Amino acid sequence: MQEFDLKQEVTDKYSLRGRVFNKVREDILSGKYKENDELKEIAIGEELGVSRTPVREAFRQLELEGLIQIIPNKGAYVTGITMNDVKDIYMIRSKLEGLCAAWACEHITKEQLEEMEENIYLAKFHAERGHFEQMSELDSRFHEIMYEACNSKILEHNLRDYHQYVMRVRKKTLSTIDRSLASNAEHQAIMEAIRDKDAKRADELATLHIHNAYENMVKNGLKEAYSNE
Amino acid sequence: MQEFDLKQEVTDKYSLRGRVFNKVREDILSGKYKENDELKEIAIGEELGVSRTPVREAFRQLELEGLIQIIPNKGAYVTGITMNDVKDIYMIRSKLEGLCAAWACEHITKEQLEEMEENIYLAKFHAERGHFEQMSELDSRFHEIMYEACNSKILEHNLRDYHQYVMRVRKKTLSTIDRSLASNAEHQAIMEAIRDKDAKRADELATLHIHNAYENMVKNGLKEAYSNE
DNA sequence: TTGCGTATAATTGTATACAATCATACCACG
DNA sequence: CGTGGTATGATTGTATACAATTATACGCAA
Asked: B38 contacts in A (CB within 8 Å)?
């Protein structure tokens, strides 16, 4: 009840505010609204067929999520993610995914572990064939399972936020067969460590996994990947 | 401009929404509003002499900060922090403060370093005399300087959030002369490592510092401290 | 007495009207 | 020609009115 459980209310599909929030968030993350674009309350409201009130409330939330910046009496502007931000997030995630993997050792359920194994098995199939869209989905899901398995609303929420935040660039990092295969092998190693309840190893492997993902991203030209969107 | 810079707008003292946000936040953190208290828009509005609109917007922000939970069509309730949440946050902070200290080694300015030294010097004075209110202030400020010095908007924002979030319980952890002195000694060691640009040592010391703070809190009866508020 | 259903009150969700602020353009003046 | 000030329009900030939803209380029937 009194949990750190936020996303649920925010993403409320049945309130206008929630719909506006989701739509604008999507549009920012997908690149429809670009850095420094000005978001006007009336325009967004008309586009979605709602008044300014829910739009304004959604804006306040987007501001706290760091997706837009609101300048009083002036307007709402889309905040960009700089390359530095991406780097910072990956470094932070590296630490936190390690923690998450370690905690998952204690709390993962049999069902979650089985879904992980299935995920890895399926990912191998798609990785070999260069199905990058599916790979991206499976990668997201793998981490999502781990977030759920760590049994900490706080950490789960934090990691999910970052995961979403770097979505724009993350997809690119899996866009080679080599990296897809390597990434999946790393997933398998992490899963095995968690299965064996070896928290120390799980921590190290998950930490390294994010490090590798970042290194790979830099190597494959983060700059272009980033500026394309 | 396009920074991850949020707090500034939120704490805008000159908008009604900002005033409401700050007031309610204060009241929650200070314990005026207790866990599971229902916050009614009209009541808060009347108390501050404003209409519901700015109150609602402030509520949305408080929700994302995790201080209240909004149940659609029902109401806003003060979220409690469970002991598990506190533990999780300290574990996460432990990792991130380490990262922060390491980064600060590269980016800290001479002014920031000097303020740290001054902070530690002054804290010694107050610690010896059992001035816990001042200690709490100085402790907050020490960490704040480090957050600023790490040169990462993302990490700074993240750590500041957690710091605020556990404010309720954090004050209690410094409420003995022994812990105050020990804490300050740890601050000094961290500062010296940062001054010497020894990132590895700074990381370890900051990590340990938060660990110690948590251990101390548990020892001194987190349970009572927590349930008192 | 207990249980259910309806009516009423209270509260939140949304829309709109009005006030305040900011940006722009135009004109007067040096 | 350039500069400054004012007027006008656009946009956000706030208040209020209305709609929808939820909680509560009361009455009726089993």
From this structure: none
